[in-house]
Specification:
225 residues; 80% helix; 9 helices; elongated
Length: 225
């Protein structure tokens, strides 16, 4: 036992960290791999979108699209606050939480208060990170709308359109990071049930993220022939 955690708990945490940190590091920081992802494909589409603005005098539809992106980002950021509130409440009622989980088959909820608090603290850290990533993405989408408002109707403003595309792409990357935190937050929730459940959930999330970002039909369609 280390800090009230069994060796199985530590092994499960190691698998969880390897899946999340390792996947993020490879996908986000290795250009050759990132170029094959749906994220990179969408970067190019956002660039084309901003360049297409140069040929339109009416930008109402474009601003509405940015507003939709801001609305979905704001929804997830607000939801993370509600989740954090629930986790704080759960942190103060360990006996009730353990009693509920004990009724589940194959569940092995932690018996010590410290081990319980470690599980809740991990979830809190994940959703705090999600909140910061999503709110930063929201601000960048807001910046993008302002930059778009300053783009003129001719080719002389091409540089301004490329700036707007870069800001939108950066916002989308932070949105994706926040959304990825949600996925792994669901995996971390399995640790409350059993350490083995955390391992399996982490591997399942890793597989699903890889499938959606590299092998989905949507990625093939966005990447083109």
């Amino acid at each position: 036992m280390i800090w009230g955690l069994s060796y199985l708990d530590l092994a499960a945490l190691a698998v969880f960290a390897a899946c999340w940190v390792g996947y993020s590091a490879v996908v986000d920081r290795v250009p050759r791999i990132r170029a094959r992802s749906v994220i990179a494909a969408m970067d190019e589409h956002r660039r084309r979108w901003m360049l297409a603005l140069l040929g339109r005098e009416n930008r109402i539809a474009d601003m509405a699209t940015i507003g939709n992106l801001m609305a979905s980002t704001s929804f997830l950021a607000n939801t993370s606050i509600f989740i954090l509130g629930g986790l704080v409440a759960l942190l103060g009622a360990p006996d009730l939480g353990r009693r509920v989980l004990s009724s589940l088959p194959f569940a092995a909820p932690p018996q010590g208060d410290f081990a319980w608090e470690m599980r809740i603290a991990l979830l809190m850290l994940i959703f705090i990170r999600a909140f910061f990533e999503l709110t930063w993405a929201l601000r960048q989408f807001n910046y993008c709308s302002i930059v778009v408002g300053g783009i003129g109707p001719d080719e002389a403003d091409r540089a301004q359109a490329l700036v707007a595309a870069e800001v939108a792409n950066r916002a989308a990357r932070h949105f994706n990071t926040g959304l990825r935190a949600y996925y792994f937050g669901l995996a971390a929730l399995a640790w409350i049930v059993h350490p083995v459940a955390l391992m399996l959930a982490s591997l399942l999330v890793l597989r699903e993220l890889h499938r959606r970002e590299f092998r989905s039909v949507v990625r093939q369609a966005l990447a083109g022939p």
